[in-house]
Amino acid sequence: MNQSRLTTTAITVLRVALGFLFAAHGWQKFTEWTIAGTQAAFTQMGVPAASVSAPFVAGLELAGGIALILGVLTRVVAALLAVNMIGAFFLVHASAGVFADKGGYELVLLLGSAALALALTGAGRVSVDRVLFGRKGSKLAVLA
Predict the structure, then answer these.
(1) What is the mean pLDDT of the chain?
(2) Which of 8, 29, 33, 100 is the 20 to 30 A CA-CA neighbour of 137?
């Protein structure tokens, strides 16, 4: 396998795995915790405007995760998810230390870093973005 194939494979694996995890977390906020429960949890954790931020975050994680899996608007979605994780880091997890079993930031740091990496690299060759925006000379090529 040449470097190009390895890079394509690596970006695709990262995008699909990250998308799956974000979609799962968004789905959990809608179905297991419910939006009302997520709003209450956000309020308890000190997240500002919990009544607005909880449904926004749940929707972003669910729809954004699906978008990452498909490779749709990957740079934009990944940047939004990275900002989401920055908020989770500073508002909730930083004070608890590193380890997730104590409420720490290890998962948030990993998810945010992976999202930032995709925001910087784009979706890669195996993606809807590449099909829609990957033409040479396209004004929207930055999205591919």
Answers:
(1) 95
(2) 8
Task: Summarize the chain as % helix, strand, coil (round to 5).
Answer: 80, 0, 20
The answer to whether the Cα torsion of 30, 36, 37, 42 is positive or negative is positive
* Tokens (6 digits) for 82: 């990275």
pLDDT in tens, 27-49: 999 999 999 999 999 999 999 99
Element (H, E) at 92: none
Please check whether residue 12 is in contact with residue 122, taking contact to mean a CB–CB distance below 8 angstroms.
no
What's the number of CA atoms in the CB half-sphere (13 Å) around residue 52? 2
Distance from C-alpha of 7 to C-alpha of 16, rounded to nearest angstrom: 14
What pTM was estimated for this model as a whole?
Answer: 0.95
Single-letter code of the amino acid located at 21: L
Q: Are 119 and 3 in contact (CB under 8 A)?
A: no
Residues 28, 38: Cα–Cα separation, whole Å = 9
Which of 120, 141, 139 has the alpha carbon at shortest distance from 131? Answer: 141
